[in-house]
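Subgroup meeting minutes
Present: P.N., E.W., G.H.
Scribe: E.W.

1. P.N. recapped why we're keeping a running log of single-chain structure predictions: easier to compare across weeks, and new members can see raw inputs and outputs side by side.
2. G.H. added today's entry (180 aa).
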Amino acid sequence: VKNRLKVYGLSAEDVKVGDAENIPYPNNSFDLVYSWGVIHHTPNTIKALEEIIRVTKIGGEIKIMIYNRHSLYSFYRYLYHGLFKGRPFRTISSILYHHLESLGTKAYTLAEVKKILARYPVEVKSLTANVTNYDLLWNRNTFLRTAAQVLAGIYGLHRCGWFLTFELKKISEIKNKLGE
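Output recorded in log:
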């Protein structure tokens, strides 16, 4: 981070290495907290989300990306690691947990995220899962790319994307932590 700040001619008052489930900053420290593809790798994603909310100032913004279990990309992973390997009853959650990036990777649905966020003092400014190149099979042959585009059109370009993104505004303090 220090090197990246230097490259862009920026500076930071304080840079710390820490645990996403126990962020080493006091309550209400930041105007903006940004997490792209991080907290779904933590053992307790909800605890990491609570920490993000805790360290954000009231009125501050939170921008997060986690993986979408109801994405086309998740479906392709199910086909490869489930159906085509003779394990049609294997869940997408299990497949992503064991066969994606790091052991324990999780993915959530739009409905799950809405339900989780409803428990916290945040205003949801946006919540979407736009299709990505992963969903559209950008590195595959023309037939598969076309099939992916048709599926994306059927299931909704803003619902079946691999990257589930949400932007929040913190409106008050967390009263009690609910846990995962």
